[in-house]
Amino acid sequence: MLLSLLFQISCEWVHLYGPTRFLQSWDFYCKENSKRSMPSHLVSNQCITELSKNYLANFASDFEKNANFPHCIGAVDGKHIRITCPIRSGSMFFNYKDYYSVVLMAVADSKYRYIYVSVGSFGKDCDPSIFKQSTLWQSILTNALQLPEEKCLPGTESPKVPYYFVGDEAFGLHTHLMRPTVDHI
Fold first, then answer.
1. Smaller CB count within 10 Å for the chain: N or C?
2. pLDDT tier for residue 27 given thresholds of 50, 70 and 90
3. How many other β-carbons are positioned within 10 Å of the β-carbon of residue 34?
4. Which residues partner with 161 through β-bridges?
């Protein structure tokens, strides 16, 4: 409901950042025109809650403690949100599940809180391509997002292992994006 309200107020899709739950306060990225049109109690002076090195290190510590998953800083996945076909949109919003949708791409911490949300990609787009076009991924590639320094895994002395996000089998491997192994025996 909040995402719908934000879209109706600003007439554009928004990206949400920072550890949040729907019932807690939301920190969100917004364009200047949406800032002006939003009720003042929904807008802070700083719209972006930065994912700092300390935040990310805490997320990784929680993943290790709660899921025995060291160096993981977030779980990424997309969700198709069913919509009515927009006028003159052709097949842009038609997805592989045979209905029209927009995609909500989210990263969650080990406590199931969103730390990044991007809403509004076309239903025809797949999760990996949406994530690779996201501001979060671009900030990782350009080193604008300061990830914690590589460290050895607990109980080892080498090698140093980078911090990473985890996605499902659809995502390709990258230094900062891992996925489960697939058994084809």
1. C
2. very low
3. 20
4. 151
